[in-house]
Amino acid sequence: MVTNATIETLLNRRSIRKFKDEAIDADTIATLETVAQHAASSQFLNDWSAIRITDPAIKAKVAEFGTQPYIATAPLLYLFIIDEHRNARIAERKGIDPSSDDFNLKTSYRFAQAQNDAVLALHAMETAAFSLGLGCVILGSPLNNINGLIELLNLPEYTYPVLGLAIGKPDQEPALKPRMPRDMQFFENTYPADADDTLATLAGFDAEVHRYYDLRQADRPVDAFSDQIATISRQDVSGKTLLDKAAAQGFQLDK
């Protein structure tokens, strides 16, 4: 592999869940937020926003939603959202009624594109933070209570939570988690027809993942990768519906 500082930063990324009790300075915050704004944006719609959560009470509530207490300890906490509300207000100023069929920024296509843009912005911010020696963890767990988030953060119509990002100075050094062999995840021209051939290196990856978790938490053994997949595939998440809540925010995901 070729390498440079950016590649080394990306190859050494790991989730940090324990932070030093030190505030992040204003210049660093401005840098991270500006980097996020420079991520790719579909059709330059800028259809995402991020809420910087500084109120300890709101942090604690987000941690409660995510059932992860460390969220409340993050010196810097963001919640990235789909934001077509701003564009609806802009369109309204140009004579377009956002509640009418003429306003198409509430359809499933735009919802998906805005979600992609929010994730790209979050990833840019995360990479910048790592490059500055900070630690991060991407948070999907607060979405366990989407209605609660919407109410807590006063999210208006045509907005929707996507992911959180906790940032701070690392107070732990977890080992790098293994990644599956490239030939299991990168294909050429078409998806492989032979699933067994694609999984030829699975046994070796299973052993590597098992070894990683044994070293990380010897007192609490963790299954091999394929066993984890099998276990998770049987978990009932039917109660964690998303699309009905998006509809309540004004999005028409059947269009």
TrEMBL record:
Residues 11-169 form the Nitroreductase domain. InterPro entries: Flavin_OxRdtase_Frp, Nitroreductase, Nitroreductase-like. The keyword Lipid metabolism does not apply. Keywords: Flavoprotein, FMN, NADP, Oxidoreductase. It comes from the Bacteria. Gene3D superfamilies: NADH Oxidase. One of its GO terms (molecular function) is oxidoreductase activity. The keyword Oxidoreductase applies. It holds the Pfam family Nitroreductase. Belongs to the flavin oxidoreductase frp family. This is NADPH-dependent oxidoreductase.
